[in-house]
Design goal:
Blueprint lengths: L3 H12 L10 H10 L5 H13 L5 H6 L2 H7 L6 H17 L2 H6 L3 H9 L6 H10 L10 H10 L8 H11 L6 H18 L26
Helix pairs in contact: 1-12, 2-3, 2-9, 5-6, 8-9
The protein binds a DNA duplex (13 and 12 nucleotides) through α2, α3, α6, α9 and α12.
DNA sequence: ACCCAGGGTCATA
DNA sequence: TATGACCATGGG
C-alpha cells in the first residue's frame, strides 16, 4: 500500500507539475473557488470570462452589482442565484476585513476560521483559498481524494473532513516544502480523475499501478 | 435520456 | 450526528 508521499511522487512523475490555481490573481482564485462548487471548471471559465469582459472582476464591483445582474453574468457556472449571493457575501466580507493585504497578515488557523464564517464558504472552498491564494500549507479534501485514498485502503472513506485533512497534513509534517506538496497533490488528484473519466472501463495506464477509477462514483473497491 | 462536475446550506429526526 | 432536499448549467 503506497504512502501519501509515494502517491504524490508517482502522480507528479506521470503528469508533471500542474502550476495551480488557474487564475491571474489571488482574488480571482477566491472567486473561482466559490464558482467551482460542485461544478465543472470549464463552466467556471465562462463565468469568469463574463465577469472580466464586464469589468467587474473585483471585490468592490461584485459587491456593488445588482444581484440579478451578477447572477446573469455567472449563469454558465450553474447555481447562479445562490452563487451570486455567495460571491457578494464573500466580497463584502473581504472588503470589511481590509482586503488582501490585511488578510495576508493573519495566522493560518485564524484566517481559516474567518473564511469559514462567511456564508457560502465551506471547508473545501476555504482550503482552496488558503493554499492557492494565501499560500498556506493546508491540504484540500475533495470527493476525488476520498475515493482515491479509500480505494487504495489508506482511509475508510467516511471520516470527517478535518480528520482526513489532518491525517494527510501529518504525513508531510516534517517536509520542508509541504506547501508545494499540498498544492501539487490536490491538483494532481483532480487531473488524474479527469484523465480517467467515465469513457474508460478501467484506470488505464494508472501511474499508481492500481485501478483506482477516481473518475467514477460507483465501484467502491 | 442519463450522469455528474475541483460543495454548501438548511430543515428535519 | 446524520441524512435529504435544494441549488442549475453544460459536456460526455
Amino acid at each position: 500500500m503506497p504512502t501519501y508521499r509515494q502517491i504524490h511522487d508517482r502522480l507528479l512523475g506521470h503528469y508533471g507539475p500542474q502550476d495551480w490555481w488557474p487564475a491571474n490573481s489571488p482574488f480571482e482564485v477566491m472567486v473561482g473557488a466559490i464558482l467551482t462548487q460542485n461544478t465543472a471548471w470549464t463552466n467556471v471559465e465562462k463565468a469568469i470570462a463574463n465577469l472580466r469582459r464586464a469589468k467587474v472582476l473585483s471585490a468592490k464591483a461584485i459587491a456593488n452589482l445588482p444581484a440579478t445582474d451578477l447572477a446573469e453574468l455567472i449563469r454558465p457556472s450553474g447555481y447562479f442565484n445562490i452563487k451570486a449571493k455567495r460571491l457578494q457575501n464573500f466580497c463584502r466580507w473581504y472588503l470589511e476585513q481590509g482586503g488582501l493585504s490585511a488578510l495576508k497578515k493573519r495566522d493560518t488557523a485564524e484566517l481559516r476560521d474567518a473564511l469559514l464564517s462567511v456564508n457560502g464558504v465551506g471547508p473545501e472552498t476555504a482550503d482552496d483559498m488558503l493554499v492557492y491564494a494565501f499560500e498556506r500549507p493546508v491540504f484540500v479534501i475533495d470527493a476525488y481524494t476520498r475515493r482515491l485514498f479509500s480505494r487504495i485502503g489508506l482511509i475508510a472513506g467516511d471520516e470527517g473532513y478535518e480528520i482526513l485533512r489532518h491525517q494527510v497534513e501529518q504525513a508531510f509534517a516534517r517536509d520542508k516544502s509541504r506547501l508545494e506538496r499540498f498544492n501539487e497533490l490536490h491538483a494532481l488528484i483532480v487531473i488524474h480523475a479527469k484523465a480517467h473519466c467515465r469513457k474508460q472501463p478501467a484506470c488505464v495506464g494508472c501511474p499508481l499501478s492500481f485501478d483506482c477509477q477516481v473518475g467514477r462514483d460507483e465501484n467502491t473497491a
